[in-house]
Structure formats: C-alpha cells, structure tokens
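Me: I'm a chemist; would you kindly supply a protein sequence with its structure tokens?

Assistant:
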Amino acid sequence: MSVDLTPAAGVKDGARAAWDWLGTVSLPPEWRRELTENGFIQQDLRFYRGDDWMFSAVLNQGWVLWYARRPAIRAGLVEAQDILSAFPTAREDRGEVKLRLHDEDAARALWNWTMGA
C-alpha cells in the first residue's frame, strides 16, 4: 500500500519520511494496514493483525504519533514497560503507549524493535 500525504502540505520533511516509510514497510503475514482521515492534516494509518487493531500511526505537522494499542499489549506482542524503557520519550496513556516519531530513522527503529527484526 502506498500512502498519499496530500493535502497535508504543512508536514515537515522528517514526519513525511517517517509516514512514507510506515506506509510502505513490508508487513508480516496476517497483517494489513488501513488509512483513515480525520481533519486537515491528521491521517491515521492503522495496523491490524487479523481483526485486531494493534498499532496506529497518526500524521501530524511535525511528527508521526505512534500508538501501541491495548490489543497489542494484551496479546503480548509488546510490553508497555519494555517500550517505555527502550524509548525514553514514550508515554503511557490510558493503557496504550505513544511515541512521537520525528524522522524515518525513528520509525525504522521502533518498527524493527516492535516486530523483532
């Protein structure tokens, strides 16, 4: 799936690179991604394993906000404390963990860590 950033003209280059990479990264078998829109710039790229919505990447002007959702944590795919330890800028919020990705390197590092690559 290729992700179209338009009409998000105000997105910074680093956020755009992280978003583009997440929109094209190879997914494991049984995984899929879906793009939803909510507002002028905010776009939500949802990552599903089967029917379970595991992760979300929300495009903002200066970053991509990555969420490890409760289903991913409950399924043991990720541990909240492990993410918080591995990525010091991550924050726990209502049973989910979120992290701002400012560039492609950050997106790659988080994805590879999450997927055990």
Helices lie at 13-24, 70-74, 80-86, 104-115. The chain has a mean pLDDT of 88. The chain has one domain: 13-115. Strands lie at 31-37, 43-49, 52-59, 64-68, 91-93, 96-101.
